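name: query_chain
kind: protein
chains: 1
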Amino acid sequence: MTKLSSEDVLRILDLQPHPEGGAYRETYRSKNQANVDPQRSVCTAIYFLVQAHQKTEWHRVTYDEMYHHYAGTILDVLLISPDGVFEKHKLGDDLETGARPQLLIPGGYWQSVQAHDFWVLVGCTVSPGFDFSDFELSNEAALKKQFPHLSF
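structure:
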């Protein structure tokens, strides 16, 4: 594990606060356009940093999103499918404990992530490309109403 602090990573990568929590910076936006309405880039990518013990707000995006683990601790990824099926995944490099370095989050799934006892840096790739008009925030109270069979 790296000896850098989360503040070092924020500074070196020039990350800014994200509305869901954590910090990010867009690193790639394809110049090619996807055949969707409204028009979107074919693909976008960001760095995303989650602080130790930080949990992001529940949110969803319209299109598929691929997480890639780059550095730091394990990231718990909590998902709720559109039909109310709950899943928990571990993103990271500790393969023996079940963590995996990549995770696909299908478009329309609610998601929240939480870091363990150290910061974690991931990459998020969205295709067709991300646009904030495709981003929706929620909270546990609203999701409990929508999915009363789930316990958080």
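note: The radius of gyration is 15 Å.
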